[in-house]
């Protein structure tokens, strides 16, 4: 069993089990991410209702994430991950009972709490299982484990609804429950976590945290360091969240399938490239700006695709999928680079807090992209919503221009 103070590597057995758990856990999330909004719209709630389903999911995800560092210290990684998997997977089949907005939002809230536990607990464990010199690659492999379900299940969810119907696809969203047998083999015992946490601030961990300015205080090593990664994550997650939520409502099924596949491929490639560059060339913090630029261009392409009414057929598929690929690539770069930068700023004593900040930025942005852009779309159309997302990414650009790598 791997303890808090014992790090293996990205080739270790514990790390591989974590990746398997992540694939199964995120499978239910990725499958239903575009399907639940489609289900709500099918029930007559419109664009705002569709966005609200994802927005509420992400709201409760973010709210729960604030408490996960405390839970990690009290009950340990295994309990946190196990409860998270159960709460994400178990409610999924119940969506089929009603497409009315109120019950869907209630189930989304429960799943959001579980997703908050799953995301922060898993990312924190990555930092514990890999040494600092491998955080780039470890984060990249975590991105692969997150990206593979999205690569396959984001597009297949929408296609599956056309072929199999909503009830079958919603039932398949219970896949996180399949990861529960792996949980006992993950992470340190709860007592080991409690013993290790107070001492983590001493020795090398204490010096690293001190050098980082305590992570929670303003200054050259505190919030000044974390502002760029957090703002970039918020802006790009907003764009991606709006794209995934509303593409099924603005394009034909074939174009949506290819576009969702493209954004997942782009995110996967971005994280792998960023992980290698960060570890090999010490570029932590330097990949935020190009990531934001790719995302901005991709969203502008989507604005054109919606507003200019791109021709149907292959031309429509090409425009929507090209923009989605760029958004995914940019967001993948930002995801990996921002997580490594936050780990470096926090130091080993506060990896759980760094994971929480990163996940909160990710999921808060996704929620804003769904709920906030849904409100914009209701009033000004989907072209206006995608245009607002592009504007937010543009505003975030100055925050990503770091002078020094992490």
TrEMBL record:
SUPFAM superfamilies for the chain: MFS general substrate transporter
Domain of life: Bacteria
Cell compartment(s), UniProt: Cell membrane
Transmembrane region(s): 17-41, 47-72, 79-102, 108-127, 139-158, 164-186, 223-247, 253-274, 286-307, 319-344, 382-401
UniProt key word Membrane: yes
Pfam family membership, one: MFS_1
UniProt domain Major facilitator superfamily (MFS) profile: residue ranges: 13-406
Keywords, comma-separated and alphabetical: Membrane, Transmembrane, Transmembrane helix
Membrane topology: Multi-pass membrane protein
Matching InterPro entries: MFS, MFS_dom, MFS_Exporter, MFS_trans_sf
Cross-referenced PROSITE patterns: MFS
Presence of keyword Isomerase: no
This protein's name: MFS transporter
Native source organism of the sequence: Pseudonocardia eucalypti
